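Collaborator request log, item 7. Partner lab (contact: R.S.) asked for a structural prediction of YqbQ/XkdQ domain-containing protein to inform their binding assays.
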Amino acid sequence: MFRLQLVKNDGSKTYDITPIVNQFSWDSTMSLVSVIDFSIIWNDARFIPTNPVEVGDLIIIYKDEIEVNRGIVVKNKQSGRSPIEYTAYDYAWYLGKSKSVYQFNNLSARQAISKILNDFGLPIGNITEMATIINKIYIQKSPAEIIQDIIKQHERQSGIKIFAEMRSGQIYIEKMRDMIVLGRFRLASNVARINVLDNPIGAERTQSIEEMRNRVKIILSKNDNYQTIALEQDTPMVSKYGLLEETFKIDEEDAAKARQAAKVLLKRLSRIHETNALNLMGDVSFKAGRLFDVVEPITGMEGRFMITNCKHEVASGFHTMNLTLTLPEDIA
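Returned to partner:
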């Protein structure tokens, strides 16, 4: 069973608001921020419970007493006697609303990210080892933008895909290959759990070569001169689909890693890109950034996919989820 707990902004009181919640949902994307939407039953008739929710309060979603998500209420919308609609964001929302300046000199990606999070008071659950050296100045960028750029630098150099998410008010930045979900749901408390793929509600599959790149060129810019320092090509894919080239510019200090970067980028780009959608019964372990093994016979969708968007909805006692899936770019 789901339960929604409200913690007042000053921490003075907590409320179980489950009985007055009309419906609620939460979603996650490949950005740092997760969103909670919920509505409160309200009208001005007698004996309707008082609504204690205010902007700035903390909302926590539990499933069988295990925390699923939490967020700060940032806005509400009221229309006549209709249920009042609320939107809450997790603590990472603050990282996207500030602007700052950072200069990193020979710090590892892990150290640079840790410094930003500590500066902004965001509790750290775990940050995986990321040895990529960061030498860069960021001016008037949000902490979220800086962290995402650092992660991308590490991914390009290492070939290891990283994801970030909030859990119980702490941020976790980890290797995607370690986060594989299975998917189970239970129709009633007295029946066994069922694989979510045994009873799909809906499925869509899209395949495209529009974003394919089967030749990658790395260039070095110095004194307004450009020099190609690495070139990798997938000849069979060029023969089959025609030449599709992408060019990347690299800083001088990273020139020694250009060939490896080209190999990683080619492996990531030289393929048929696939974007799929699944509507399934809900499992709270599903979040953006996790991996999901799919066999869906109607569309022919089969293989290991990366969840890029996951929206959970709970209404009338039913928990469903909508997933957007892509093929993993390069899970090293």
